[in-house]
Write a structure and sequence with these properties.
Elements: E1 2-6, H1 12-24, E2 31-39, E3 42-49, E4 58-60, E5 63-65, H2 73-80
Parallel strand pairs: 1-2
Antiparallel strand pairs: 2-3, 4-5
């Protein structure tokens, strides 16, 4: 993890204490960088997290799926036959 100290200097022990605090308060997330901005008696912490990969899940023909690769021919045909609806947005303020 990268620790950046801005507007001053901190000892290794102080930096470690802020890192420990940040890890404690960002449980379940992977911290990649911590910016410690010194401002007189105050300290601002800015957390930077690693991106978490996710898979898009959609509801298709009654099933929650990410991809169609496990559908049989009948389900694939059902997907192809779906009516896709669109939403018309009226931007006219008088309506």
């Amino acid at each position: 993890m990268v620790v950046n100290v801005i507007n001053g200097k901190l000892s290794e022990k102080e930096q470690d204490a802020y890192v420990e605090y940040a890890l404690k308060h960002s449980e379940g997330k992977e911290l990649s960088q911590l910016d410690i901005k010194l401002d007189g008696d105050y300290v601002d912490l800015t957390y930077h997290f690693n991106k978490v990969p996710f898979e898009r899940i959609r509801r298709i023909t009654g099933y929650l799926v990410g991809t169609l690769d496990r559908f049989n021919d009948a389900k694939r045909a059902e997907v192809e036959a779906r009516v896709k609806h669109s939403m018309k947005v009226n931007l006219d303020a008088n309506h």
